[in-house]
Specification:
105 residues, rod-shaped, 59% helix, mainly alpha, 3 helices
Length: 105
């Protein structure tokens, strides 16, 4: 909104001074906007650089092997077992001979 003095006057010198002052403020504002945009662009570049460095460090630290999924076994490799049977190795022949028979009636 224009100041009352500017609205009510018809003096060309006063209007010229007001316009000059306003244009000066506009120029300062535009320069400041450009400065802020340049600062933001530098910060964005720094963030991108740090992000790239982080990604490279993660790849070096964890390597490709940690990103691989475990190898799936085919269904022919699975054996049907009783609960807990897979925790112990199967008995050998000597252990099987030592087992006693139990008659169930």
């Amino acid at each position: 909104m224009l100041p009352k003095v500017v609205r009510d006057t018809n003096d060309p010198e006063l209007l010229k001074k007001f316009l000059t002052h306003t244009m000066g403020l506009l120029d300062k504002s535009q320069k400041r906007v450009h400065e802020l945009e340049a600062e933001k662009a530098k910060k964005d570049q720094k963030i991108l650089k740090l992000d790239d460095q982080l990604t490279a460090m993660q790849k070096r630290h964890f390597g490709k092997s940690s990103e691989k999924r475990s190898r799936r076994r085919s269904t022919s490799e699975y054996k049907l077992t009783l609960h807990g049977a897979s925790l112990l190795p199967p008995p050998d022949k000597k252990e099987l001979q030592e087992l006693t028979e139990i008659e169930v009636s």
